[in-house]
Amino acid sequence: MFSLRSVSKTFPNATIALEDITAEIEPGDFVALLGPSGCGKSTLLRLLAGLEAPSAGSIEWEHRPGPGDIGFVFQDATLLPWASAEENVYLPLRLRGRKWADAAALVESALAQVGLADFANAKPRALSGGMKMRVSIARALVSDPMLLLMDEPFAALDEFTRHRLQDDLHALWRRSGKTIVFITHSIYEAAYLASRILVLSPRPGRIAADIRTAIPEGERRRASAAYTDLVAEITETFQRVMPVHE
Ligand code: ADP
Predict the structure, then answer these.
(1) What is the pLDDT of residues 112-125, one digit of tens each?
(2) Is the CB of 11 under 6 A from ligand 1?
(3) Are residues 61 and 4 in the same domain?
(4) Domain assignment of residue 100, given as a range
(5) Which of 31, 177, 200, 233 has the most other CB atoms within 10 Å of its CB?
């Protein structure tokens, strides 16, 4: 889908946020960017979104993304409080001039994909934190993007809700075959969700490990030996690569 070729990012204040990042991301990969605060995860996401340019190196796209080809989800659901779930999901299409008559089916389908088919007319204040996040994911999906960029979307949710959303996002990814790049600082979350984990080490942000996961699908995934072994492997990687004073 895209290649990162020796990508570096140095800010004007001389902070080196990323250094020599090289990785090839295949269509359908679920990539977790995993690392502690300050290791350059958000900077890498902003580079992918085209909101910043690399200071050195390049991002080569198989198909350069146009409007609607990249969906964003942030930690805060950022819904319009006066608008219903349906109107919030319609917003990106409306901004691109799509009439409601030809957007309605897409909006309905996006809400159904996140399990909110029955909540189209609910206002954000009537929705729980997890449901608001579902609306935010539906809004990102409504233009059928080729790439979904997610910046710690579940970090503010309680653990029970988080597990449900992780289960549903993992299932949605398997069903849709979308390419996802997902920021997290949770080893458990990265291990559970992703097909590939880029472990970043800080100052400057570098790829410390590139781990392809292979946890068998099934109801007891969280309790599987493959999952706990992967968590242990990532934990050991961090112990190896993190500076001792962190
Ligand atoms: P993460 O998302 O992993 O917490 P960030 O990508 O936000 O990390 O930041 C990486 C490093 O770059 C940090 O040291 C941060 O302070 C610095 N940084 C981020 N944005 C800017 C900016 N606009 N100007 C200067 N430094 C920045």
Answers:
(1) 999 999 999 999 99
(2) yes
(3) yes
(4) 78-145
(5) 200
Tokens found for residue 97: 């001039």
Going by pLDDT thresholds of 50, 70 and 90, the confidence category of residue 243 is low
Query: In the numeric block, which tokens belong to residue 224?
Result: 């599987």
- 56 lies in the same domain as 153: yes
Into how many domains does the chain fold? 2
Q: For ligand 1, atom 13, which residue shows the shortest CA distance?
A: 38
pLDDT tens digit string along 117-151? 999 999 999 999 999 999 999 999 999 999 999 99
Residues 47 and 160 in one domain: yes
Residue minimizing CA distance to atom 10 of ligand 1: 40
Ligand 1 lined by 14 (C-beta under 6 Å): no
Residue 113 lies in a domain: yes
Name the DSSP letter for residue 4.
E
- pLDDT, one tens digit per residue, over 177-206 is 999 999 999 999 999 999 999 999 988 899
pTM of the predicted protein model: 0.94
The count of C-alpha atoms lying within 13 angstroms of the C-alpha of 66, restricted to the half-sphere facing its C-beta, is: 2
Cis peptide before 204 (omega within 30 of 0): yes
Q: What is the mean pLDDT of residues 170-175?
A: 94
Pairwise CA distance, residues 56 & 9, whole Å = 7
